[in-house]
Design brief:
CATH class of the largest domain: Alpha Beta
Strand content: 5-15%
Number of domains: 3
Bound molecules: 1-deoxynojirimycin
Shape: globular
């Protein structure tokens, strides 16, 4: 690594914030959010499924971890075909998870402990058990009830074929036939019919949902399938059907997803959010091809944040990560928005396993934590990454993700990253449930060393590293970021007075002179070994 006097930088500066509607600084611009996948976080009532009471009991753990805000996965009444992303009533609480009073208590306690609370909204589709959809099935073709969804006549003789060749993300066709012969669109499971966003009633109802939760005091929303909602009105065939893992990255882009009309929805939602005090915010789950398209969702009058999934998809390689970071920082800066970093979620193979698993994956995941938390802008952590949880290879008969059935057992789905968290003790349920029960997905028998309790007092554990990094992150310089020169297999960047470095190469890397704030592994004669990262306080050279 060069000394600071040799700094030659690619500077990516973030322009000042757009004018804030309220007096406080916009907290979300560099917040650390923690994703709670509710079924798998903590079980309060002993049925083996996580719930709101379980989260409330564990809030002190989250405060001690040092996160600023929580993102709660859907907790609304749901038949659970897609584990809550099939919403039967967007303005109530699923009894398995609690009730509205329990939600209010959770929100109040989170606020009392200094954490913001954001929640999922699912505007693209509903459950087939939503009152609206049942009414649509009971009504005739062409009725106002059917106009809330996307019903069409079929193609081919007798309309026996689906209206077009669109496939569902979860496998199979995106159309389901109903007894009177019409078909309805479901880009996910058949139990998740797509709503018709060209119907003003659908848009009004979604804003009612936002207001319902904003009035209760939530600080913001994570928008499910935010690049969805509108489909090409022609409903024409795709030139070549795509497969689920190319969501939004092939010929379907602009046809099934990422239509220009969707931006008006977020302009309107922004006005709703801005009409409340305290910088209420929204982050979009936006799967698009390039950073410019991503940035379009976070223009000053649209969403506040959009997940940058390109880092999550990047290989463990300096060049690819450098390119992703530079490109997304530049694209987001051009619209005055921060870049939102994420490495894992309830939809992705846990990054410890993606980066090689075992000791190698753990070592890299430690370094990745300092990468993630060392970048400017908000970060989303996924529950369990702070405990070094790996992806779990579950037996076939335990799998519950609809992807497993819909793909004809060719794709195992996302259950492996959703296994209930280990909190304490040496055997399942590891304190996840208050009594000894079968958890909704089975936990491995060798997680005794990964529990929060086992890692709590060990500053070198993954939990210890995350806690220290979250504390030290407060010292990194705002939105300031610049690359420093170094070997091609290293990433070295400056944040104010702090230099951050991640060494992907085999040779140990020389660190700049200064106070070492944090390292993911022990240094070797003052140098940074392979697959490790460090933060060093080192004043920039005088100009
Ligand atoms: C994205 C969610 O994160 C995922 O879990 C869900 O299956 C789909 N959207 C459909 O709602």
């Amino acid at each position: 690594m060069p000394s600071s006097s040799a700094e030659s930088a690619t500077t990516v500066s973030t322009p000042g914030s757009p004018p804030a509607p309220a007096e406080q600084p916009a907290w979300w611009r560099d917040a650390v959010f923690y994703e709670i996948y509710l079924r798998s976080f903590a079980d309060g009532n002993g049925d083996g499924v996580g719930d709101l009471a379980g989260v409330r009991a564990r809030l002190p753990y989250l405060r001690d971890l040092g996160v600023d805000a929580l993102w709660l996965s859907p907790f609304y009444p749901s038949p659970m075909v897609d584990h809550g992303y099939d919403v039967a009533d967007p303005r109530d609480v699923e009894p398995v998870f609690g009730d509205l009073a329990e939600f209010d208590r959770l929100l109040a306690d989170a606020h009392r402990l200094g954490m913001r609370m954001t929640i999922d909204v699912v505007p693209n589709h509903s459950s087939d058990q939503r009152r609206w959809f049942r009414a649509a099935l009971a009504a005739a073709p062409g009725s106002p009830e059917r106009a809330r969804y996307v019903f069409r006549d079929g193609s081919g003789p007798g309309g026996a074929e689906p209206p077009n060749n669109w496939p569902s993300v979860f496998g199979g066709p995106a159309w389901q036939r109903v007894p009177d012969g019409q078909w309805y669109l479901h880009l996910f499971a058949p139990e998740q019919p797509d709503l018709n966003w060209r119907n003003p009633e659908v848009a009004e109802d979604a804003e009612d949902t936002l207001r319902f939760w904003l009035d209760r005091g939530v600080d913001g929303f994570r928008i499910d399938v935010a690049m969805g909602l509108f489909k090409d009105p022609e409903l024409g065939d795709l030139p070549t059907p795509y497969t689920a893992d190319r969501r939004g990255h092939g010929p379907e882009d602009g046809v099934l997803w990422n239509r220009p009309e969707v931006h008006d929805v977020y302009r309107s939602w922004r006005q709703v959010l801005d009409s409340y005090p305290g910088h209420r915010m929204a982050v979009g789950e936006v799967w698009v091809r390039d950073p410019g398209e991503l940035a379009a969702y976070i223009r000053p009058d649209e969403l506040h944040l959009a997940f940058n999934f390109r880092l999550l998809r990047a290989e463990w390689a300096a060049a690819e990560m450098r390119a992703v970071i530079s490109q997304t920082l530049a694209a987001c800066a051009a619209v005055g928005a921060p870049t939102t970093w994420v490495l894992s979620s309830h939809d992705a193979v846990r990054h410890l396993s993606r980066y090689g698993g075992g000791d190698l994956g753990r070592r890299r995941a430690r370094a990745a934590a300092l990468l993630l938390l060392g970048l400017p802008g908000p970060v989303y952590l996924y529950q369990g990454e702070e405990l070094a949880l790996p992806e779990v290879d579950l037996p076939d008969d335990a799998l519950q993700d609809p992807v497993w059935e819909r793909s004809g057992h060719t794709e195992r789905g996302r259950d492996g990253c959703r296994v209930p968290l280990p909190w304490s003790g040496g055997e399942p349920p590891y304190g996840f449930s208050p009594t000894s029960v079968r958890t909704w997905l089975p936990q491995p028998t060798d997680w005794g060393t990964l529990t929060a309790q086992a890692q709590d007092r060990d500053g070198d554990s993954m939990l210890g590293l995350y806690r220290r990094a979250l504390r030290a992150r407060r010292e990194l310089g705002g939105s300031d970021f610049r690359w420093l020169e170094g070997p091609p297999d290293a990433l070295i960047w400056r944040r104010g007075d702090v230099v951050c470095a991640l060494n992907f190469g085999a040779a140990a890397l020389r660190l700049p002179p200064g106070e070492v704030l944090l390292t993911s592994e022990g240094l070797e004669e003052g140098r940074l070994p392979t697959d490790s990262a460090a933060w060093v306080r080192s004043a920039p050279a005088a100009p």
